Hints:
This protein is mostly helical. It has 14 helices and 5 strands.
Amino acid sequence: MSDTEKMELGTYEATVERSRKLEEDLSVHPEKYRVLTGDRPTGRLHIGHLFGSLQNRVRLHNLGVETFIVIADYQVLTDRDSFDKISENVRQLTLDYLAAGIDPTDGKTFIFPHSYVPELNQLLLPFLTLVSNAELNRNPTVKEEIQASGLKSINAGMYTYPVHQAADILFCKGNVVPVGKDQLPHLELTRVIARRFNDKFAPNNPVFPEPQPLLSKSPMILGLDGGQKMSKSRNNAIMLSATEDETAALIKKAKTDAERFITYEPERRPEIANLLSLISMCTGETPEAIAAKIGNGGGGQLKKMLTESINEYLRPFRQKRIELESNMDYVRQVILNGAQKAREVGTATLEEVRAAMNMKI
Ligand code: ATP
Ligand code: MG
């Protein structure tokens, strides 16, 4: 392991530890926190979202923590040419949230696309002046996404979307952000921006909190192709709303390896370990115990068990989603209500920001 890798691992371990402490405090003092979290409307949610982030959101929601869920529609334009499905995807994501147990009727949960909140987007301008080009170029997640997208020409939105994300989080002064591991560099940038803004414009009366990441127990679910993050864009995901037959067909094609006997060895056999972990997330049994049960049953048995576990685990979610789908007017109203609240909150923050920057007439 190189020195840089050791340092990165050390930082990651410290983040995991902080996330654990935050977790403890959240259940004691839910009123101290405001959660900001979100997704890009590039498709429906997959099981990586469910285990990596969505379940955490539902849990916090159930603790009574105020939750803002941003649907980052502008961010779709960073690496996609097509925009014809954006609004449909916004509605489909909202269905996924509602089916997973997010319930906006509690008056503490708001779902909105960021394009509907001009006050939020306006924060991008001062924030862009607080970071350097070099910092934006170094972001490892952006680098990885550029590589995965296969794009030849990269637009400036791709390099600056982490700053936009800082606006998503800070416009409502979110102080807890449940995320997967890929988002940690972005969140660090948000913390830097909050700190620099406060230091420069409001040293005596800080405007922004430094938000903390909340990692789930499984901060990085790999795709069915084994080697990389499960992602909407990489054709390697099981969508939550897939039918049971679609789920079976996807899993049939999942990558395994040449050894028949099933063991749980994440380093040596990452593809097998990933499939075992997915079963474990559904059933609560340890991956080791599941591997021992399958043993000589090989990849075929492993895939069969995974298909059954996921289909069973998702059955209530899928049922509820189908029911909700018949009431799209309600879904639309949820989004418009969320946007209205986000604008109220954003207006108040922008007033403070304007005053701090000495731009108030
Ligand atoms: P896209 O491919 O369009 O970027 P995505 O699948 O990466 O889509 P995002 O909308 O970018 O999904 O991510 C939303 C949230 O879900 C983030 O907090 C991210 O960390 C989390 N997340 C996404 N994929 C995974 C995964 N495979 N494992 C754990 N968390 C994930
Ligand atoms: Mg992504």
